[in-house]
Amino acid sequence: MNVLEQVEEALLRYERMTSGERTERLKQAGIEVLSLHDRRKREPGLRVRYDVEISCLQAIRIKRKDTSGMGGAQETLLEREASSTLFKRIERLAIKTLYTLGLDHGAVRMESSGNGGCAVISIDPGPWKG
Question: Given pLDDT bands bounded at 50, 70 and 90, which one contains residue 119?
Fold first, then answer.
């Protein structure tokens, strides 16, 4: 089986899982998951969101977006060298998220949580598909 076939097979396995099964797998792996319902219950204020694109279980881009909840937002790209500790923490969580769900490629959106960590808010298993 070639790499492309493996990616397609992993994507099919992911798509066969229900949302509840995905969430349960992530929670069992110690990954915090924030549902849309939970996000709506949170008080407005500063939010830091990370959009991580992963290929071959390695981050190729991490975008940080600071939002005030009042329409203002500031977006920056994290550099692997410049912010190494933060980059590595975010990358590690995103890779663990995809790996737990049987994926090698995808995009993970995370938001900082009140306990100093991040919670997964969405996963796109095929961000590059047209």
Answer: very high
DSSP-derived pairing of the beta strands 47-55 and 118-124? unpaired
Cα end-to-end span (Å), the chain: 23
Buried b / exposed e across 78-100, counting CB within 10 Å, b at 16+? beeeebeeebeebbebbbbbbeb
Widest Cα–Cα separation across the chain:
50
Hey, what are 79's tokens? 């550099």
Q: What is the pTM of this model?
A: 0.86
Contact 53/98 with Cβ under 8 angstroms? Answer: no
Amino acid (1-letter code) at residue 28: Q
In tens, the pLDDT along 37-86 reads: 665 566 666 788 999 999 989 999 999 998 765 666 688 888 887 667 88
Query: Could you give the 3-state DSSP secondary structure of residue 108?
Result: strand
Name residue 45's amino acid. Answer: G
Here the tokens at position 64 are: 């940080």
Strand-pair partners of 83:
none
